[in-house]
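We read letters as residues; the fold follows as tokens. Both lines appear below.
***
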Amino acid sequence: MFTSTGSRGLYKAPLSKGLLLVLNGLTVMLTLLPQYQELFVYNLQAVTQQHQVWRLLCGRLVCLDVKDSFCSSLLIYNFRVFERRFGTRKFASFLLGTWCLSALMDFLLAQAFQFLFDYEVEELPAGLLAPVFSLFVPFYRLIPRMPVTQVLGYIDITNKSLVYIVGLQLLTSGPFMWLLALSGLISGGLYHSNVLWLQKLLFVPAWVSCIGRYILEPLFSSSQPSSETPLGMGATLDIQRQQRMDILDQQLLLAQYNESTRNTRQQPQSGLLQWTRLFPSLRQRGQNRPPMQARPQAQPQPSTQSPLLDNSPVAEEQVALLVEMGFSRTDALEALRASNNDINMATNFLLQH
């Protein structure tokens, strides 16, 4: 689906697979049981005024909107490349660190918005949205940008365009989704840049990683696909494969150029256009044909023309045109004699035989 992440599914991405299964499963369950949705509402006033701190955990994990859950799932599936590249523990540490930082940023941005516009933000969209937006920071900085195609000859479509489109769709799905997006981008930039040594303060401990490795990883691990090689991970494998294809294409073009140059030197032709480079398959037509027997003559006379031709007049300018198109002089003379000096019929005859 996304060209930047390879095609190996959720192999070597157990945390991403667990998030997709568990969070989407809870979203479906809450959709079927709407009486329990109030427990997972991300209400800022309930946290600050009523001290319901548990709403931070419930309201910032499970999406109550199916559209938000779908878009965030697509982004998590795409960002699984970071779990493959850096390992499950570092990926989990990034999500944990940005989750904690974005929780603080949510309240700071809500207070700043109230101070500037005199409007109090009561609720924010629920779900693991801010950490998902924070993953755009390493995605922008670490994933290389490779052009795929162009629209209208001016707009470049790259391997990262679809990811940004899904992120834009998620950004416009709610009235205060921009606040979560800004909070996630700020927290992602701070954690990725390791400001104030945040990566050493907010991380998953080794003992928690060991517990997850022996208990949770067997439940969410995926088998290795047989069609993919085990070397490399994620975008690195696709980049290496693309680089090898580019090198082979360059070698093939260089070999074709050297061959055309060598043949042109062996058989120089007159005219402004070198048609032999445009028609390489027709270059040696006359040279590869078996020699034809000369017609018997009563008194052989020396001649500069080929012995298979008679002395019927042929326009030299028409012969020169056919030779410039890549045909041999012998074939051009034959075709012109057979077509009664009709250049169009001669050309069709040479192209069909």
DSSP finds 18 helices and four strands in the chain. Residues 21 and 290 are 72 Å apart (CA to CA). The radius of gyration is 35 Å.
